[in-house]
Amino acid sequence: MGFYLPLAPPNLYWQKTMRHMEPNRTVLLPWFLLAVGWALLCVFAPWRQVHPSNVALVLSLARAPLWTHDYDGLPGAQLDISELLVEATLILVVCGLLLAAVRSPKFRTGE
Question: What is the 3-state secondary structure (H, E, C) of the chain?
Fold first, then answer.
């Protein structure tokens, strides 16, 4: 019993470039940064206090988690939705640009 065929190394040079079918760590980096950015945004969300009689008077409060009850005693305390959406959009755009840069052929070849 045995194999009588000669052993030969595999031919890895049949293509000029090797393509990865599985995503590598560099491609997964923007998705990881997006998840970390959203988590940090939920933990450090912007809060504001609107004056009960005049909605033009707004006092910016400190950052606190979305689920906090720290500002329940303040009248008119609410989540600053406009600033939250601007920061979320900024995180999404930066991660989208990073993902586009990572997937570009120039980034892969190192040019």
Answer: CCCCCCCCCCCCCCCCCCCCCCCCHHHHHHHHHHHHHHHHHHHCEEEEEECCCCCCCEEEEEEECCCCCCCCCCCCEEECHHHHHHHHHHHHHHHHHHHHHHHCHHHHHCC
Rounded mean pLDDT, 1-13:
63
Place of tokens 């008077």: 57
Measured at the CA of 52, the angle between CA 49 and CA 53, to 5 degrees, comes to 135
d(CA 85, CA 72): 22
pLDDT of residue 54: 83
pLDDT in tens, 63-109: 999 898 888 888 888 999 999 999 999 999 998 888 888 777 776 66
Note whether 49 and 79 are within 8 A (CB): no
